[in-house]
Amino acid sequence: MVATHKISIHNTPASRLPSVDFSNLPFGKVYTDHMLIADYHHGAWQSVRIVPYGHISISPASPALHYGQSIFEGMKAYRNERGEALVFRPLDNWKRLNRSAERMCLPEVPEELFMQGLQTLIELDRNWIPDVPGSSLYIRPFLFSADEYIGIRPSENFTFMIILSPVGPYYSTPVKVCIETHFTRAVRGGTGYAKAGGNYGGAIYPAKLAQDRGYHQLIWTDGIEHKYVEESGTMNVMFVKENSLITPALNDSILAGITRDSVIQMARYWNMPVEERKISVEELINGLRDHSITEAFGAGTAATIAHIELIGYEGTDYHLPPVEKRDFSNRVLLALDEIKRGHAPDPFGWVHLF
Ligand code: COI
């Protein structure tokens, strides 16, 4: 990594840290003292700066507001006993950000801008990293068009930012999900594999309809036949069937989750058979009926490993075994948590020390 970006720092005059109740953190409502901003003009990234966290100004004609030309990432940082910040797989998020950027016609963010920006910001707000069990510092990098133009064309001006949020659990209980066979999250050739804002915006209404019926989230099915399972809400979805880990194979309508990949690598490390393949709704429902599917969980940065309590389909709720009986998902949740917090060796080289 080459040091090419001079980062200017404007410190907050008064930290808000003393006002935060770290024993009772919600998800995504509390933000640290500082944020990083970089502008892209005339074909180059410039004026990389850290400023006090606060509102930004944006042209009302920005394509990010009108056409959703905006992408984001999610990562987490933890603090070890020596007070060092540990960030989980940041280079994988950087690579995925740039895959999303290509799809949404946004410029690449260079590795040194992403990593130096992150490091400088985290060093400044290090004391905001919670050390309460179940909590972490959620890192939200995002990139959007900053043109002032409401025609449709590739933009020329962009903004890259990173904000930080100390968070508690995304789901505080095992989740109830239902299989969605009417609405579609993503289709072949679309933007489903990218972390594009609009993928999530378009999911809010169908998810709300499910929430009105008592579920937390949906399990999305493919946009062509609604026959194959794809993702669950903000997470990838994984099952244990006859002692094998099964999960939908990646395609361009499924996000290549970094937690998903970490779970697969852990399972293989433990010599557990892993099948990345198409999983039909029929196979899933049959497996729940005959109890050959013994575990179901979502995997995501925000949600970590979210146990699925039940799956609703065509008016019937299919219950999974009690959480305490789920050997694999409990083991992988704990093992990943130990690695992320620096409490266990990191055989995969996932943890980045800042
Ligand atoms: C994440 O897990 O980091 C996500 O991006 C989920 C988010 C939409 C809350």
CATH homologous superfamily (4th level) name of the largest domain: D-amino Acid Aminotransferase, subunit A, domain 2
Instruction: Supply the number of structural domains.
Output: 2
Mean pLDDT: 96
Q: For the record, what CATH class of the largest domain applies?
A: Alpha Beta
Helix fraction?
A: 10-25%
Ends apart, CA distance between termini:
14 Å
Strand content: 25-35%
Number of strands: 18
Which of globular, elongated, flat, extended, rod-shaped describes the shape?
Answer: globular
Largest sheet: 9 strands, mixed
3D structure, described in words:
The protein has 354 residues and is of the alpha+beta class. It has two domains: 4-167, Aminotransferase class 4, branched-chain amino acid transferase, N-terminal domain (D-amino Acid Aminotransferase, Chain A, domain 1, 2-Layer Sandwich); 175-340, D-amino Acid Aminotransferase, Chain A, domain 2, CATH 3.20.10.10. It is 23% helix and 30% strand. It has eight helices and 18 strands. It has helices at residues 63-67, 90-103, 111-124, 197-201, 204-212, 258-269, 281-289, 327-340; strands spanning 8-9, 34-41, 44-52, 70-72, 75-79, 85-88, 136-145, 158-167, 175-180, 217-221, 229-232, 235-241, 244-248, 274-277, 293-300, 304-313, 316-319, 351-353. Helix 6 crosses helix 8 (327-340). The radius of gyration is 21 Å and the shape is globular. The relative contact order is 0.14. The mean pLDDT is 96. The structure holds 2-OXO-4-methylpentanoic acid. 2-OXO-4-methylpentanoic acid binds at residues 74, 200, 234, 300-303.
